[in-house]
Write a structure and sequence with these properties.
Layout (H helix, E strand, L loop, with lengths): L2 H7 L3 H24 L6 H7 L4 H4 L6 H26 L5 H18 L1 H8 L13 H18 L4 H5 L8 H8 L11 H22 L10 H18 L4 H4 L1
Helix pairs in contact: 2-3, 2-7, 5-6, 5-7, 5-8, 6-8, 6-11, 6-12, 10-11, 11-12
Length: 247
Amino acid sequence: MPVDEHMAALPSLRQRRRAAATQEILDAAERQIAESGPAALSLRAVARSLGMTVQALYHYFPSRDELVTALIAKAYEALGDAVRAAVDAARDDSPLERVLSAAEGYRRWAVEHPERFQLLYGTPLRYYEAPVEGPTTRAVRRMGAIFEREMFDGCTPAQLAAVDASELSPAFVAYLDQMSPTGQDALPPAVTALVMSAWGHLHGLVVLEVFGHTVFLGEHQAEIFRMGMRNTLKDIFSRIPSVDQVC
């Protein structure tokens, strides 16, 4: 690449300074959330901690909602990275064990970052509305796609179409059929129901722990989570017919 083209491809000094300042603001906001919880987030306090005025902060985040959106998207990305890393570490394991590792990566991040997890799944911040199909939506879909890929990677369309979900009502199947896919490809309604069921079990157990409702289990909270998720995943995998069964 010619020197002039290479220089043009690099961020300008102004862009680098803006990126650095933006990251400082996000880091300061995350520290405030860690210290006082998501509900206490204050642009004035964030600006004061950085030695800048609120007016100066508005040059980077014109509103509280834009800062909150950036924080939520960043938290989802970090959570997704933790799930991805857990899956990569279990790459040579069975599909069930890889999904179980993904679930444990999700739990581990939530337990280690309870305030950021509460920003994602705790009491909604007053007056905040996430942008429709914005960065927060895209970030959570990317994370969800990891679970979908690990759960059904290697399954043929015929296998997925024959998944056993006989307990679903025709009305619910029709509703699920109209839903937008969260991954790259649309899933059959029965498979979507299995994903939602697994998500409910996973997320419910993590929420109970992060919000202190299973503290009486002490050091055994990880064990009860692993048992619950293993049983849930065994049920799901048992509903997927083998290739021979659908041929």
